Prior knowledge:
This protein is α/β, with parallel strands linked by helices.
Amino acid sequence: MQxxxxxxxxxxxxxxxxxxxxxxxxxxxxxxxxxxxxxINMLAxxxxxxxxxxxxxxxxxxxxxxxxxxxxxxxxxGFGFARVPVHIKKKWEKMIRDYLEQRENLICTFLLIxxxxxxxxxxxxxxxxxxxxxxxxxxxxxxxxxxxxxxLQSNLAAYEKKFSxxxxxxxxxxxxxxxxxxxxxxxLALIDGWNRETTTPEP
Length: 203
Ligand code: GTP
Ligand code: MG
């Protein structure tokens, strides 16, 4: 799929303020600094579309980007950001969970996990929450460029082991690097397929 147009639509503090749910939508979720905003920019082919930062906690609202005038990419704040007060952390988490549960045009959520780290408790908790709520998701391991081939394979094996203890079948996943554009075609092909399924053919 070619990305011909990518435009910022709005930032919202609640799912209630989000744009009308008239297009298929795909959200990006994961811990602060995992690379959500960078991945959106990589997919859109525009490094300046979503704001990124090396300091965790950059994205603080629900941000909608309209792609090719016909579907949304949604950038969300990170969860588990340690350096903000607890009441703000709780507020963000509620905003994210409400959005994921209430957004009626949300087709799939990409749950991003930094492949450099061991399976972390808050990633696993979030994954299980998505499962409990029966919300469709796809795991994206990020920052693959930061690891050598062997380390990448052994970390993936550790995740598979962890997942297989809790999930049957294993949740679907892919590997990405926003630096190297790894995973771009795979993610866009998934979205293209889902868009085709959700768009009613013309009579
Ligand atoms: P919050 O908005 O704070 O929740 O973070 P985020 O998940 O949106 O992360 P963001 O895209 O802002 O990226 C965080 C940092 O990681 C930035 O310094 C990025 O340049 C870097 N980064 C993101 N993706 C990659 C990647 O694939 N490879 C490398 N090497 N760095 C990356
Ligand atoms: Mg961000």
